[in-house]
Design goal:
CATH class of the largest domain: Mainly Alpha
Helix content: 40-55%
Distance between the termini: 57 Å
Strand content: 15-25%
Largest sheet: 5 strands, antiparallel
CATH topology of the largest domain: Multidrug efflux transporter AcrB transmembrane fold
Order of helices and strands: EEHEEHEEHHEEHEEEEEHEHHHHHHH
Length: 405
């Protein structure tokens, strides 16, 4: 197991702190230590998360606000963070626009600058030497291009009083002049350091992680109506990302192919018996697995996500197999001349051990995956649904067969 500490950043030189641990307890202890250290830096946007396997990268809960005015988007994000914080279910609140940057804005004296032959580009190039630095070249490191910056000495940077004394080349006089000759004043302000867009629309995303032991689906269900109750100005939209979006996309893609798969399974079951009643009995047993799946997910506090849906689809095939074995045994006994009731009872008893053993081997085979980070939902779905539905099938199939025939 590994824990990643990754500060949200604008400078690509910052990296990740990856800590390897051998147990979940060590992960939790390390997370608490790092989180406590980060509290000493209230302006830093940093969080702790476990490395996740499979799809669904990013924060589990994300609220996206779309619009044109950055100030309005900032206000909506602050309201969202307040709701997240008050819910008591979420932690590591953050936004992908990060903190605004403090900037110094020079107001150019157009008349004096034109007389001295100093352009805005000249002023910007001179001031960049004592602020962000001037790019003079690139250094290649494998597939990365690292800019080489030229900056003034440290004692000449940073304050507006020092910027006024910065020398700028004057093409009209042929000598250097101080910046105070072409600048009326310097003022401090704030501006957005990073503005992200989705489909060419400005989008600010507020992200959060559930607290330890809190189910993602439960947390999302509780905070969703509160966030959607926030009044949005005209022209602004709210979209949900995170697990809700990734699970919805996966289920939508699966739903396009699912009808064809179910139709093929129904046709095969009808062709297998060359009748309609027996396949109907078999398919009536499939929904019974929902009861077992529900109890299994409730007891383990897991959500019905994409992997659980895959487990549910796999489970339907296993139940159909068990029902086919039972129905076919009853039909064979009737064809051999046994009375219908005798064939029903004896056939059910004779198939009891094979059906239970087949289900038990599948359940035991899925048991190791129940402790896996990625496959836990699917394993619990198959185990609980198969255990419950197998026992119910052994009762429901003979009962339905008796009613239908």
């Amino acid at each position: 197991m590994m824990l990643v500490y990754q500060p949200e950043r604008t400078n690509p030189a910052f990296g990740q702190l990856i800590v390897t641990a051998t147990s979940a307890n060590q992960i939790e202890n390390l997370a608490q230590i790092i989180t406590a250290e980060l509290e000493a830096y209230p302006q830093a946007q940093a969080w702790v998360e476990r490395i996740r396997l499979g799809p669904g990268k990013g924060a589990p809960i994300q609220a996206r606000f779309k619009g044109e005015d950055p100030q309005v988007l900032r206000a909506l994000s602050e309201q969202t963070k307040a709701i997240f914080r008050e819910s008591g279910l979420l932690t590591h609140l953050r936004s992908d626009w990060r903190q605004p940057e403090r900037v110094i804005i020079p107001h150019l004296a157009e008349d004096r600058a034109s007389v001295l032959g100093v352009s805005r580009q000249d002023l910007a190039k001179s001031l960049s030497m004592v602020t962000t630095g001037q790019t003079v070249g690139l250094y290649r490191e494998e597939d990365r291009l690292i800019p080489l910056l030229l900056k003034a000495p440290l004692n000449e940077r940073g304050r507006a009083t020092q910027l006024k004394d910065r020398m700028i080349w004057s093409r009209a006089t042929g000598e250097f002049v101080p910046a105070s000759e072409v600048v009326d004043r310097f003022e401090f302000s704030h501006e957005e350091a990073l503005i992200l867009r989705r489909n060419m629309i400005r989008t600010l995303t507020v992200s959060a992680d559930p607290l330890a032991g809190v189910n993602i689906a439960t947390a999302f269900r509780d905070i969703r109506p509160l966030i959607e109750a926030i009044p949005l100005p005209h022209g602004y939209q709210l979209e949900w990302g995170g697990e809700h979006e990734s699970s919805g996309d996966a289920q939508s893609a699966l739903a396009k192919q699912l009808p064809l798969s179910l139709l093929a399974m129904v046709i095969i079951s009808i062709l297998l018996f060359a009748k309609l009643k027996q396949p109907l009995i078999i398919w009536l047993c499939v929904p019974m697995a929902i009861c077992g799946v529900t109890w299994g997910l409730l007891l383990t506090q897991m959500s019905f996500g994409f992997m659980a849906l895959l487990g549910m689809l796999s489970l339907s095939g296993m139940l159909i197999k068990n029902a086919i074995v039972l129905v076919d045994e009853i039909d064979q006994r009737i064809l051999e001349g046994e009375t219908p009731m005798s064939a029903l009872v004896e056939g059910s008893v004779s198939r009891l051990r094979p059906v239970i053993l087949a289900a038990a081997t599948t359940i035991l085979g899925m048991l190791p995956l129940a402790f896996d980070v990625f496959f836990a939902d699917m394993a619990v779905t198959i185990m609980s649904g198969l255990a419950f539905a197998t026992l119910l099938t052994l009762l429901a199939v003979p009962a339905l067969y008796s009613v239908f025939f």
